[in-house]
Amino acid sequence: MSKPFDAIIIGAGQAGPSLAGRLTSAGMRVLVVERKLFGGTCVNTGCMPTKTLVASAYAAHLARRGADYGVVIDQPVSMDMKRAKERADTVSRNARTGLERWLDGLDGCTVVRGHARFTGPREIEVDGEAFTAPRIFINAGGRANIPDMPGIGEVDYMTNTSILALDAVPKHLVVIGGSYIGLEFAQMYRRFGAQVTVVEKGPRLIAREDEDVSEAVKDILEGEGISCRLNAECISFRAHAEGAEVGLECRAGAPRVVGSHVLLAIGRRPNTDDLGLDKTGIEVDERGYIKVDDGLSTNVEGVWALGDCNGRGAFTHTAYNDFEIVAANLLDGEKRKVSDRILGYALYIDPPLGRAGMSEAQARMTGRPLLVSKRPMTLVGRAVEKDETQGFMKVVVDAETQRILGAAILGTGGDEAIHGVLDIMNADVGYPTLKWAVPIHPTVSELIPTLLGGLKPALS
User: Fold this and answer.
1) Nearest-5° angle of CA 162, CA 323, CA 36?
2) How many angstroms separate the CA atoms of 273 and 314, rounded?
3) Which residues pair with 297 in a beta bridge?
């Protein structure tokens, strides 16, 4: 016989636990099911451990540049990778155990550890035990995508999850995939002391971004000694005494590269293939993402999908916003929509890339009359004072409505400064409001009014 609850939450990632808190506060009896690690990707294999390692890599990089700041270091800088790994593990563990303890002690919430599978539209089974509820929320997350490339089964490879187990610096790390995850690990391990090669099938890195952003990021990475192999038409693998031989068939450079370690960073896939969705009638797209409407409901009444498994966002903050939308609509009588969300995100190389809204290329595709402005980070006093002047700022505006359509800040503090632009976009006011703001000196944000003051019609 099934045990009844008012709501079932499958997965304890970014959306699930917060939703459990709101639902129990509303008097509901809630079941939370988690099959592995509480906190999801962000806490365990994403943001928290990787950004902790990025901080260690930045410290090593800055130490090597000590002479630029008048700091004398008498011996070569080296990495204690066991200590760096221990630090990242501690950050993740503390967040995970804190969340787990909170859920276990939450009044009205029952936590079950195991793999949930649907046996019907309103019923799940966990290790032979059945549970039912009129409301079910799927927060199952995602994992690394492993394409069926020639020879992939012949070599040892790592994903963004397994690479976190490394406690020594690779001799030569070959990163397959020139996008956000791959580039963060590439720069990180180069700063740890590894030789690094990035292999990208396309003609440029981070193809989602504008070409000037892609080129600037490539220049930053190559300036630190990272080899970027683009146009890798047919990537293949073969076992080698030193690790793995990666075939490239690139238009320029050697046709193969030998690495001691290989990292696959070729996108993500949703954890939906083993949930028993076929027993529910819930629709998924060709990649396995659960289809949802603007309020995150599936096609089956009473079932919602939140976070990475719904294909409507691939970030911690969008997953949390999914929770906010569902809770507001279900409990507060609001009509929040995913389509109202203005997307912001960051690429955490150093210097970081902060992004808001559309790229320039995306804005041009709308056919609107545009205003564009771009300024180098060499004009930012804070960047000059820190001797970190790589990158630039760019903003794109609708010439008729004066609304900012998008912006990119590639430079020191860019991931923080971009929020001034995001706030104006969310407030739905024209760019002159931000142009006439008086930001603090010396900050990265103080160049934004100057940037807006330089807007000119986009060249066709």
Assistant:
1) 30
2) 18
3) 304
Query: Rounded distance, CA 284 to CA 196, Å?
Result: 37
The burial of 212, by beta-carbon neighbours within 10 Å (0-12 exposed, 13-18 middle, 19 or more buried), is given as middle
Among candidate residues 115, 114, 141, the one with its CA nearest the CA of residue 43:
141
pTM: 0.95
- Per-residue pLDDT of 196-226, as tens digits, reads 999 999 999 999 999 999 999 999 999 999 9
**3-state SS assignment for residue 92:** helix
Cis peptide before 439, with omega less than 30 degrees from 0?
A: no
The residues, ordered by sequence, that sit 6+ positions from 216 with a Cβ below 8 Å of its Cβ are 390, 391, 392, 410
Q: State what percent of residues in the chain have pLDDT above 90.
A: 96
Architecture of domain 152-266: 3-Layer(bba) Sandwich (3.50)
Whether the domain at 152-266 and the domain at 344-457 fall into the same CATH topology = no
Q: At how many degrees (to 10) do helices 47-64 and 180-192 cross?
A: 40
Q: Residues 390, 94: contact at Cβ < 8 Å? A: no
**Beta bridge mates, 143:** 269
Q: Which amino acid is at 213?
A: V
**Average pLDDT, stretch 357-368?**
97
- For the 3-144+269-340 domain, the top CATH level (class) is alpha beta
Residue with tokens 């060249």: 459
> Is 3.30.390.30 the CATH classification of the domain at 344-457?
yes
Residue ranges per structural domain of the chain: 3-144+269-340, 152-266, 344-457
- Burial status of residue 27 (CB atoms within 10 A of its CB: 0-12, 13-18, 19 or more): exposed
Beta bridge partners of 126: 116, 129
Neighbours of 201 (CB within 10 A): 18
Q: Are 307 and 15 in contact (CB under 8 A)?
A: yes
In tens, the pLDDT along 294-332 reads: 999 999 999 999 999 999 988 999 999 999 999 999 999
Q: Which residues pair with 368 in a beta bridge?
A: none
Instruction: Classify 62 as helix, strand or coil.
Output: helix
Q: Scanning the structure block, which residue is given the tokens 């008097």?
A: 27
